Amino acid sequence: MILGRIIGAIHSTINHNFYNGKKLLLVEKLSPSGKRSGSYLIAVDSIDAGAGETVLVLEEGNSARQVVNDPMAPIRSIIVGIVDEIQAQ
After folding, report:
1. What phi and psi, each to the nearest 5 degrees, are found at residue 17?
2. What CA–CA distance (Å, rounded) separates 56 from 71?
3. For the purposes of burial, counting CB atoms within 10 Å of the CB of 19, is it exposed (0-12), middle (13-18) or buried (19 or more)?
4. CA–CA gap between residue 56 and residue 2 (Å, rounded)
5. d(CA 82, CA 79)
6. In whole angstroms, what is the distance from residue 88 CA to residue 56 CA?
7. Integer CA distances (angstroms), 20 to 5, 13, 28, 67, in order
8. How far is CA 9 from CA 4, 26, 42, 45, 80, in A?
9. pLDDT higher than 80, residue 89
10. pLDDT at residue 39 greater than cutoff 90
11. What CATH class is the domain 2-82?
């Protein structure tokens, strides 16, 4: 699981049918303490996350396919939670 922050959205006019009606978000990866890492990924939004929110992302195809309940879905990353607070010790 990856900790990240929503930094943008992806819009496309031509895509695989699986992505019709789904929101794709640009997620900047964060360290466990919440610091920016400089790397990013594109993830399907399953929870209606918005810009600037800190989120949890599954970045493993099989787990993502289980969330969307489609064993053949062309998906690798999916947003599965919004983080309210980070407490690093």
Report:
1. -55, -30
2. 21
3. middle
4. 6
5. 8
6. 16
7. 23, 10, 23, 17
8. 14, 5, 9, 10, 16
9. no
10. yes
11. mainly beta
Residue tagged 């922050």 (tokens): 5
Average pLDDT score over residue span 6-32: 94
Residues 30 and 56: beta-carbon distance below 8 Å: no
Q: Which residue carries 């969330």 as its tokens?
A: 67
Determine the Cα–Cα distance for residues 5 and 51; give it in Å rounded to an integer: 8
Amino acid symbol at 21: G
Give Cβ neighbours of residue 28 (< 8 Å, ≥ 6 apart).
Answer: 4, 5, 7, 36, 37, 38, 39, 40
User: Which residue has 């789904």 as its token pair?
Assistant: 22
- Residue 33 reports pLDDT greater than 90: no
Query: How high does pLDDT run on average in the chain?
Result: 93
- Tokens read off for 34: 């919440």
